[in-house]
Amino acid sequence: MKTYKHLAYDQQCQIYALKKSHLTQQAIADIVGVSQTTISRDLKRVSKGSVDRRLKLNILMDHLCYCSQVKIKPIGYLKMKLYGVGKSRSFRALWALEEAGIEYEYISVKFGSSDENGSASEEYKTLNPQGKVPTLVDGGLVVTESGAILNYIAANSPKLHLIPSNDLKRRAKYDEVCYFVLSELEQGLWTNGKHRFALPEAQRVSDILPTATWEFNKAIKTLQSRFSGEGFVLGDEFTMADVLLAQTLDWAERFEFDVPDNLLSYKNKMYYRKGCKNALEKLEEAQ
Questions:
Q1: Which of 5, 44, 137, 286 has its CB surrounded by the most CB atoms within 10 Å?
Q2: Are 280 and 237 contacting, i.e. CB atoms less than 8 angstroms apart?
Q3: At what angle do helices 9-20 and 36-48 cross, to 10 degrees?
Q4: Residue range 30-46: average pLDDT?
């Protein structure tokens, strides 16, 4: 009969992970391919600390990795939390979570309010000092920029290829699209929003609105020279760059900017995806 030290290392990790999923010892034995008696003895050794301390720590770490592979919630499991407001930039993150298939809790924030659950409340600003959305919380990690949040979510679901990881040139093009959207395409939209409603009234400059429209139109022309609207923005595979671009085009449409038909058609196709539909339903539930 195999004892704990005779088991392969991956079997040790599997045993520990599966035990935390509250399966019976017999079910664990069947999955790992050992006897139930071995399972019983091994679990006692791990729980009593008779296993080498270094090995035990490694098992704990690999337990988390194994759980992510077999979709078992590890002990101490906490859902990601996303704080957002409607169809603002936080919708990018909400959509991304749905595409990645990650369990999360969505918390609707009252934009500009200093009341409880408001974006200007002292409690919320301990997470996001600017009092903006989105804010993603994953355990002790807090991320507050939408582009960084999308990349983090994508990296948590590597098998879905939502962000290029093995092709340096493809990753460079991915970054190029994302940075263009964030630094060029959305700037006219954000300037428009700030000076119509987001900024305190005393800080708004209505004369800048035509310039914001000019900026957006210039960026749209650049986008059309790079992307026809056919397929996905990187070619044959959906990525978080499509989430970023499609949400920004939707933002432009809602703000009544002129968006070319081919790009509206692309946006509509992206919004027809199940992940986007699920995110929209989540917004309705939060209202």
A1: 137
A2: no
A3: 80
A4: 60
SS3 118: strand
| Residue 267: closest CA among 246, 248, 252, 243 | 246
Q: Residue 151: which residues within 8 A CB-CB, separation 6 or more?
A: 163, 240
Dist. CA 114–CA 122, nearest whole Å: 7
Which tokens go with 286? Answer: 């939060």
Non-local (6+) Cβ contacts of 97 within 8 A are 80, 82, 104, 153, 279
**Does residue 131 contact residue 198 with C-beta atoms inside 8 Å?**
no
60-113 pLDDT, tens digit per residue, is: 444 444 444 444 444 444 689 999 999 999 999 999 999 999 999 999 999 989
Q: Bridge-partner residues for 241, per DSSP? A: none
The answer to whether 105 touches 82, Cβ cutoff 8 Å, is yes
Angle (nearest 5°) at CA 125 between 122 and 128: 170
pLDDT at res. 14: 60
Q: How far apart are CA 203 and CA 237, in angstroms?
A: 43
Per the CB < 8 A criterion, the answer to whether 89 and 136 are in contact is no
CA atoms 133, 179, 228, 210: torsion sign: positive
Alpha helices in 156-238 (DSSP H): 168-180, 187-193, 209-226
How far is Cα 79 from Cα 143, in angstroms, rounded to an integer?
15
Other beta carbons within 10 angstroms of residue 178's beta carbon come to 22
Q: What are the structure tokens assigned to 234, written together?
A: 């990187």
The closest of 189, 249, 180 to 213, measured between CA atoms, is 189
Kindly report the pTM of this predicted structure: 0.74
The average confidence (pLDDT) of the chain is: 84
